[in-house]
Amino acid sequence: HSTNKTGKLTMRNVIRSASKTMLKRALRLALLRRRTRRTRRLARRTLLNINIFAINTMQNGIIKLKRKSIIGLTFL
């Protein structure tokens, strides 16, 4: 892998977009069937994955974006 600035930028963008889609999926899952136990468990697992994802990719903005959404999603 090349370590030039453009490469880093694109990687960051990829990571950011990936985290956004993960959040959207978790949100949709949680909101779709809030009451069924299966989906709740699934949503929780997705949230955990997002958390790990955030910790693994210490990129600027991602963590902030996550914390906001997770606070809302934890209580579903």
Model description:
It is built from three helices and no strands. The protein has 76 residues and is mostly helical. The protein has one domain. The longest helix is centred in the N-terminal third of the chain and has 28 residues, at 5-32. It is elongated. The protein starts with a helix and ends with a helix. The model has no long low-confidence stretch (mean pLDDT 60).
Largest sheet properties: none
**CA radius of gyration:** 14 Å
Beta fraction of the residues?
under 5%
Distance N terminus to C terminus?
41 Å
Number of strands: 0
Average predicted local confidence, pLDDT: 60
> What is the general shape?
elongated
Number of helices, where a helix is a run of at least 4 consecutive DSSP H or I residues = 3
* Number of separate domains: 1
Overall helicity: over 70%
> Regions with pLDDT < 50 over 5+ consecutive residues?
none
Structural class designation: mainly alpha
Quaternary state of this entry equals single chain
Elements, N to C (H/E): HHH
Topology (SSEs and partners):
Blueprint lengths: L4 H28 L4 H20 L5 H12 L3
Helix pairs in contact: 1-2, 1-3, 2-3
In a nutshell, what does this entry contain?
This protein is an all-alpha fold.
Keywords:
76 residues, mainly alpha
